[in-house]
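From the shared-data thread, chain only:
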Amino acid sequence: MTSASLEKSSFSESINKKNEAQCISSRDTSNELTNASNSLDEKDLQKDYEEESVTSKEVIPRPGPPEYYEGWRLAVVQLSLNLILFIAALDIVIVTSAIEKISEEFHDYAKSGWIITGYSLPTSVCCLIWSRIAQRLGKRLSVAIAVVIFEAGSLIVALSNSMNMLIGGRVLAGIAGSGIQVLMFLVGATLVPEQKRPFVLSLLSFSFTVSSVVGPFIGGAFTNAPSGGVLSWRWCFYINLPIGFTALAVFYFAYDDHDTSILSIIRYWKANFKRDVKKLKTKNLYTKLMLELLVSFDMIGFISSAAGYILALLSFTFSNSDDYSWTSGLVIAFIVVGMLLIIFSFLFEYFLYSKLVGFLEQKYSGNEALAFNFKAAAPLFPKEAIRNIYIGCANATAVFVTMAYGFQANYVIQYFQLVFHQSAMKASINFIPFMVSISIVVFLSALVMSKTGAMKPFIILGGVAAVLGNALLSTMDGSSNEAKKIIYLIIAASAFGFVAQSTLLSSHLQLDKTDPMYMLKFAGVTGVNSFAKTMGISIGSVLSTMTFNFSVINKAKKLSPPVTITANTIVSYINGNYTSPTSTLSNMVSSSIHNVFYVSTAMAAVALILSLFTSNKRVMTSKKAKQIEKQEEEQDLDA
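Structure, as tokens:
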């Protein structure tokens, strides 16, 4: 047997073991009536159990062996993944053109910032839980759930009659958008063998590029449509419905992970509904629900982590407003409680989760009616992501590079709008080279990674490009020419392109494929990497705004005569007093944007240092696998 075959065989064996254990646990759980019900006597309970076992075996399929995709089927699945990821990525950028119109219609400018924050915050903090949902329910069913929830959120936004209703829809869409981002890369990473993953994952990245390019144009077209017509800003969200459901239908029928499907669930409930209603009266049902939440979904770790990051980000956001300051009680409380919760979540995941599982196992393992598999327990944040220095450094590099990216994405557009007085549409057009270069670098990096198997050089290149790009951006001012702008933007953007997939693949390489828990850890590490990148962008966006506002407010006080402005009046003051790109006011804005990029350069420097400590491990290339296979075939013939 070839080395490549052995790798695939061990990979298949580990998944089969996990799938078999999960299938048996799931089947036993759904098939066994609890013996704790006082409303049923022993004879009736036994009869129900025997009947249900026979019925359930007919409707719940056993998972088959894993398979890799190729040819037209791979192309169809890849296309559906890109379309689903496209609507989640589009929702990030298309709304920027509609914020002013939405605020005007609802007469609520004070909450306009939450149109973006309401989506971005849940997108960042929910990455980890979606990787576990995929492990428990299967990837295909999880994708269906995420898309349906996302479409529901989009519909709520499109039909909203108040700002609060709109923000609620954005939060719901953000929760599902997080799942879409994690699940698309998780599915993509398991479609093909290890040596082909860089190419498949690079194709997914094009969804972000396309959405970033077309999003502002589509959003602008809908928002600026003549009033009284069919089109309006609401179509920025209606557009998700046909694209999302079409892509989901294609994905659902082309992809099969041999796990529970929607049809099998419907058939099961149709056959066992009456028996399952009886279970509502039993104590074991609620005990099993508690175990699922505490052990399978690690809700203590998830809630403490999510709440901590949300409070910490909100503290930075509020401190940057006119209503609060760093010394206000609310801001101090948010940042202290937030940091404590973040620290607790790490301590819980690394030390306390296993103790909790041990306690629950000792208490409930003797209850055969529960049929709960404690051996498959694992924290949402895998221990490998903490104690493995290579996984830790790869993800930390991703965090700091994406933080710098958050600074760039936020203030490159602001540079064109505030210094050159460009419209949102024109500023977005000038931003296109930035986004296109990311996808080009991701794609070219994937080709080279597939040929060489090396990941570390690209992570280091990401750190170098981040430092150089941010340093160059800090030199731009009102006199910078077009060539300089484009070159600097391309260099800065390439940093994200270099680390986007290399940090994820480098983390995957650290896992042991023969470990029975391999797929669980694989999903967990994928979730952690997505969490690192989305959280980095969110933190960068918040910190960049705080840095800019602080700089502008302080510099305005030094003008002659001094000018007192607030965070809420910065943009209106600049627009109302604009004269030219090289005026005193524009120079003040340029200088403030320079401070933004000074901070992002420091973050990029941290990323570069961390990148030096990532793993040198390589994936087996397709060429090497074929050579080994050919040699072993020749040896078999000689024998």
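Confidence is low (pLDDT under 50) at residues 1-65.
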